[in-house]
Amino acid sequence: MRKTALLLALCSGPLALANVSVSAPANGSTVATSVQYVASATTSCGAGVSAIGIYSAPGDLVYSTPGNHLNTELYLNPGTYHTTVQEWDNCGGSSSTPVTIYVGGSAGGQVTISEPKPNSTVSTTVQYVASASTSCPSGVSAIGVYSAPGKLAYTAKGAQLNALLNFSPGIYSTVVQEWDNCGGSSTAPVTINVGGSGGSGSGNVFTNLHLSPGWNGSALLPPLYNLCGYCSPSGPQTTFSMTPNVPSPSVSGASTRTSIGGQTVYSDGFWNNKLIGDFSTRGMPDTNHTIVPSLHSFTYDVYFYSNDIGASQALEFDINQFVNGYSYIWGHECRIAGGYEWDIWDNPGQKWHPTGIPCHPLANAWNHLVIQVQRTSDNHLLFKSITLNGVTSVLNYYESPTPTTWYGVTINYQQDGNYAQTPYAIWLDKLNFTYQ
């Protein structure tokens, strides 16, 4: 793929001095269920602060934003919270400031959920439609969805909610909650079965693909970036490796470590898994051509981690469908050294199309990425949305396919080298792929 060189600031050393200053809320204060956080961070790292975020409890990152300033509102149930505001710099360092708060407020209204239905079986993309009312004269402040106790997955200002949320397969006891402007709050529960069989709208899911033995690795060399048939995983052009069942760092207890390096600058490590159709690794060759033509919606759901994210030129996550003589390539690239922005693949033009959507993965922390795409009824590619660490960016971008003789559904993962081909590793976990 084409590269854009970026002059990087050099860190003065591995032990950058940093400070997080929290303006609100005050440590030890009693607050309403709607809590305003205002904070800033400084660092002696020459490359500056990468991001700043809030932990509502140890290990529970509920909000993060690029840069060194934070101003956001969190909605918390009544109780005592030992929260932490943390910064991550571009030299691999981090610092934090603890803030203990006491959240008060009593129930003051009613929540009505239209979708999803209680105990319904749904696909991994779930639509929530709800409304709220309150006896508070100042009205409802916000309404949100908890995917699990203490896990606030989505919030919207006002008394109406209409959102698409992404879940991994499983049974969830979710809660929709409203917060009013008098400090009160009320809730309504709704249990859902995500990705189950036998229900209308349920999707088929390949789970934990990062541990699948079906991945094929290769190097991509500039300037053409075709698969290098003569390259070896040990280099010297590009080194690349994929090591499964790594206990730490991990989310599930078994991650997969992928790494690149080598002598050829701006070269890439590329991994492909043929899921359905030709050369299927999942026992689904679809020789009668009945499965692949019926599939129109796909979701790529993965967690990734790096202790040196700034060494990456870009990370790429692709969904591919080859059917009825057409090639549908939903390519998604998070440019990191290339500019911290999402690009999507222009099939006919064979080039990247900038989206304007920022991509700032956290260093030394797990990032959760969900990509949704669709093959439309008139045979176009629809890039629907990108969700990174709980923030959903809607694309709704259409593209045309290109001719092919291939047949099947595949996914790709790729790591791009920078101007110095600096070696770096990424850990993948809970890689699930939904098709329907």
Write up this protein.
Helix content is 0%, strand content 58%. It folds into 3 domains: 18-103, Immunoglobulins (Immunoglobulin-like); 109-194, Sandwich (Immunoglobulin-like), CATH 2.60.40.10; 204-435, Jelly Rolls, CATH 2.60.120. The strands form 6 sheets. Strands 17, 19, 20, 22, 27, 28, 29 and 32 form an 8-stranded antiparallel beta sheet that branches. Strands 18, 21, 23, 24, 25, 26, 30 and 31 form an 8-stranded antiparallel beta sheet that branches. It is mainly β.
**Radius of gyration, whole Å:** 23 Å
Shape: globular
**Biggest beta sheet summary:** 8 strands, antiparallel
- Pick out the low-confidence regions: 1-14, 196-202
Counting helices, strands and paired strands, the structural category is mainly beta
**The top level CATH class name of the largest domain:** Mainly Beta
Mean pLDDT: 87
The number of strands is 32
Looking at the structure, the CATH topology of the largest domain is Jelly Rolls
CATH architecture of the largest domain: Sandwich
Total domain units? 3
- How far apart, in Å, are the first and last alpha carbons? 30 Å
Fraction in helix: under 10%
For CATH, the homologous superfamily of the largest domain is named as Galactose-binding domain-like
SS field, number of helical segments: 0
Q: Tell me the strand percentage band.
A: over 45%
